[in-house]
Amino acid sequence: MSFSQARSIPPLLLLLVALLRLSDAGTPAPTATVENTSQQTTDSISKSKELESTTFSPGPSGPSKTTEDAKQQTEAKTPDLEAVKYNITIKEFSTVVKNITLVEPTTLELSCSVDINPSLDKATIEVMWRMGNTTVKDDNVTKGEHQNIWSSQYTVHIKNRDQLGTYTCVFKTKEKSEGRFDVRVPEVGGKSKSLVSYEGDSVVMTCNSGKYVPFDWVWYTMNGSEQAVINDTLRPEKYHVSKKNLNITKLKVLNLTEKDGGVYWCEAVFLQLGESRGNASLKVLTYLVPLKPFLAIAAEVIILVAIIFIYEIYTKKKEPQAEGEKEFEQTEQLKSEDSNGVENSTTRHRKV
Amino acid sequence: MSPPCNTDLGYIPPDGGWGWAVVFGASISVGFAYAFPKAFTIYYKELQAAYNISYGQIAWISSIMCATTYGGGPISSVLVSRFGSRPVVIFGGLLCGIGMVSAAFCTSIFQLYICAGLITGLGLAFNLQPSVIIIGKYFLKRRPLANGLAMAGSPVMLFILAPLNQLLFDNFGWRGSFLILGGILMNCCVAGALFRPIGAATGPTKSQKEKPAIETLEEQPETGTAELPGPGKEEEEKDRDCCENFNKYLDLSLFKHRGFLIYLVGNMLMFLGFFAPLVFLAPYAKSLEIDEYSAAFLLSILAIVDMVARPATGLIANSRWVRPKIQYFFSFSIIFNGVCHLLCPLATSYSGLAVYSGFFGLAFGMVCAMLFETLMDLVGASRFTSAVGLVTIMECCTILLGPPIGGTLIDAFGDYKYMFIKCGIVMVLAGLFLFIMNYYNYRKLAKEEKRKKHDVAPKDRQ
């Protein structure tokens, strides 16, 4: 609570501060150690944090989380990559959303910056960080180097699916300014329309996870009312799963029967972070289905052709005499045209 | 209106009556021949997935189909000379149907090349040429209009086939769709049934006109073709050997015909830049950040304007001011088309592209409507049977080369504008060539007729 109290245990404090420095690399180690020590040191550490205004990864304070945090500490000992930074710039009194897609455990450094009207003469603004509905950090920020930019940071290490969700920073100005980070695994694209295929034929279903490469793919099908995994080593004559380019997977189903129709799920597994599903539906038809329209059209063609031919014969029968006369007329015309034929072709050019 | 040109058919074409039914049938046939290969590309994605092949391999189906449709021209011509239009079109319709139905049961991509590419393409060839030929037999005074109306079948059929193909695919998958398309293509037989044979019906009439080859055609009085044999070759009937027999059906002496050669060279040049902009319009729009549906709508604008432009051009070309100089009108429409392409790179917004699509549709329709009319005008209706076959097989090469050259330009420069500029330049050059050469041709024809008149006049006196 006060510096005088803190002075009483300097070596422990130094040790803890050293550990805190390490934590700036991004591991939640201090959380674990904080929990193991007394409440006093916890308070003193938070105070020193305020003075330094560095980032640290808070965990929900409370003794019940000790074992979990210990686990975290052991896991965090592995060397980590640099934190991936994401920044949102919010204009005053508005909400901005940013989507973050992860494929593996990563450390995220989230920061929000607000551009506030200079007329505000407060020295500090309260910032609250939230994950889902629970508050994870309360912060007071001062004006940054640039006149009107106030920013706050929050680092979180995404280890498993529990940490996926929406992280929000709320600036408690007159009207709230909010920045939201949606952290999730990539979505898998399936097909919205069902594929149609025929008995005895084979069909290929594709799932695409865009530019993200999952750790593995699993295909499921509906067996009655349950989901069943499709194992292509078990039944290679029926199923063939190809995962050549890892962001695309293809399921080839051979020797289709009517039972093979239905919904298929492709699941992209992302290491430790969970899975993402896409679906494809399949319809298996017999050849009789398109045969009916085909026969209908063929019948229509035959009928029309027959009508046309019958009409032709009918009109020919009607005018056997008239035709003979016409022919005679035509020959007369042609005889006269014969001699004029040459001149006729010249008139075309003359009449320009 | 001046009675235009070559009445060497041996009879007066009706210019109406049953002719309009023939025009309707011809528009169906022509529509299938041009629109089917374009609408067929809807199935490519699914076929690619089913056979696990690349886009390049699948696109071969289009190329084979196109090549057989144009390359089968001479075969068409020979068959029409021998049997007349009707049997050939009915056979073509059956062939298309058989091709697509067998494609529905294919198990490899090579089988698909043969069934959907070769057989169907050949069937379409047996539809295209005879339809155009029979229009020349039924119409003379209103021939440009009839040609325009028949060619209008292409955009109309594309408008119907494209969504229909998508609907069939969603409901029946690609195999079922091929089966049903086989049935739909058999409607070409209906069109063929409408092609009632016409012509100088009886033998004695023909012999008066001193056409020795008629004797062989007497056995087939229904064919209605009065094929003009190669000059001087068939004077002696007994003197026929294999070459002359062939010449009777496919008139190779056309290669000495001045008008034919002008048409051939000009059109081969034009086709180098004719289809490429159509193929790349949608990808160009997408590269300018226009979404897929708006890009597809550009093609719809093109099709709608095309649909209206073709009969309208036929009407204009039929008028007494234009018909005598129809070749100039044709050259003008090609140059107009080329100028459109040259101005296209200036259009960078969606509305600019929409305007370009409208003008492109207009120019495209104008050129297509007069494509066969001008050939008929140059060589005459009786020699047209062979001429159309020879022209299509020679144009086949440049038609197939056009889009790949455009594609190479796009890949090489990474920009679509060079493809448009190349197409524009090629078409303007083709138009200018046709304009100048036809001017020369008209003058020569006028001189020849003056000379003939002088020759005839003294004969009459004798």
TrEMBL record, chain A:
<feature type="signal peptide">
    <location>
        <begin position="1"/>
        <end position="25"/>
    </location>
</feature>
<dbReference type="InterPro" id="IPR003599">
    <property type="entry name" value="Ig_sub"/>
</dbReference>
<feature type="compositionally biased region" description="Basic and acidic residues">
    <location>
        <begin position="66"/>
        <end position="78"/>
    </location>
</feature>
<protein>
    <submittedName>
        <fullName>Embigin</fullName>
    </submittedName>
</protein>
<feature type="domain" description="Ig-like">
    <location>
        <begin position="186"/>
        <end position="286"/>
    </location>
</feature>
<dbReference type="Pfam" id="PF00047">
    <property type="entry name" value="ig"/>
</dbReference>
<dbReference type="InterPro" id="IPR036179">
    <property type="entry name" value="Ig-like_dom_sf"/>
</dbReference>
<dbReference type="InterPro" id="IPR013783">
    <property type="entry name" value="Ig-like_fold"/>
</dbReference>
<feature type="domain" description="Ig-like">
    <location>
        <begin position="79"/>
        <end position="169"/>
    </location>
</feature>
<keyword id="KW-0812">Transmembrane</keyword>
<feature type="region of interest" description="Disordered">
    <location>
        <begin position="318"/>
        <end position="352"/>
    </location>
</feature>
<dbReference type="InterPro" id="IPR007110">
    <property type="entry name" value="Ig-like_dom"/>
</dbReference>
<feature type="transmembrane region" description="Helical">
    <location>
        <begin position="294"/>
        <end position="314"/>
    </location>
</feature>
<feature type="region of interest" description="Disordered">
    <location>
        <begin position="28"/>
        <end position="78"/>
    </location>
</feature>
<keyword id="KW-1133">Transmembrane helix</keyword>
<keyword id="KW-0472">Membrane</keyword>
<dbReference type="InterPro" id="IPR013151">
    <property type="entry name" value="Immunoglobulin_dom"/>
</dbReference>
<feature type="compositionally biased region" description="Polar residues">
    <location>
        <begin position="33"/>
        <end position="45"/>
    </location>
</feature>
<feature type="compositionally biased region" description="Basic and acidic residues">
    <location>
        <begin position="318"/>
        <end position="338"/>
    </location>
</feature>
<keyword id="KW-0393">Immunoglobulin domain</keyword>
<keyword id="KW-0732">Signal</keyword>
<feature type="compositionally biased region" description="Low complexity">
    <location>
        <begin position="53"/>
        <end position="65"/>
    </location>
</feature>
Automatic annotation (TrEMBL), chain B:
<keyword id="KW-0769">Symport</keyword>
<feature type="transmembrane region" description="Helical">
    <location>
        <begin position="418"/>
        <end position="442"/>
    </location>
</feature>
<dbReference type="GO" id="GO:0016323">
    <property type="term" value="C:basolateral plasma membrane"/>
</dbReference>
<feature type="transmembrane region" description="Helical">
    <location>
        <begin position="49"/>
        <end position="71"/>
    </location>
</feature>
<feature type="transmembrane region" description="Helical">
    <location>
        <begin position="145"/>
        <end position="164"/>
    </location>
</feature>
<feature type="transmembrane region" description="Helical">
    <location>
        <begin position="293"/>
        <end position="316"/>
    </location>
</feature>
<keyword id="KW-0812">Transmembrane</keyword>
<dbReference type="GO" id="GO:0008028">
    <property type="term" value="F:monocarboxylic acid transmembrane transporter activity"/>
</dbReference>
<dbReference type="InterPro" id="IPR050327">
    <property type="entry name" value="Proton-linked_MCT"/>
</dbReference>
<feature type="transmembrane region" description="Helical">
    <location>
        <begin position="18"/>
        <end position="37"/>
    </location>
</feature>
<feature type="transmembrane region" description="Helical">
    <location>
        <begin position="354"/>
        <end position="372"/>
    </location>
</feature>
<dbReference type="InterPro" id="IPR011701">
    <property type="entry name" value="MFS"/>
</dbReference>
<dbReference type="GO" id="GO:0015293">
    <property type="term" value="F:symporter activity"/>
</dbReference>
<dbReference type="Pfam" id="PF07690">
    <property type="entry name" value="MFS_1"/>
</dbReference>
<dbReference type="InterPro" id="IPR036259">
    <property type="entry name" value="MFS_trans_sf"/>
</dbReference>
<feature type="region of interest" description="Disordered">
    <location>
        <begin position="203"/>
        <end position="238"/>
    </location>
</feature>
<dbReference type="InterPro" id="IPR004743">
    <property type="entry name" value="MCT"/>
</dbReference>
<feature type="domain" description="Major facilitator superfamily (MFS) profile">
    <location>
        <begin position="19"/>
        <end position="442"/>
    </location>
</feature>
<keyword id="KW-0813">Transport</keyword>
<feature type="transmembrane region" description="Helical">
    <location>
        <begin position="260"/>
        <end position="281"/>
    </location>
</feature>
<dbReference type="InterPro" id="IPR020846">
    <property type="entry name" value="MFS_dom"/>
</dbReference>
<feature type="transmembrane region" description="Helical">
    <location>
        <begin position="328"/>
        <end position="348"/>
    </location>
</feature>
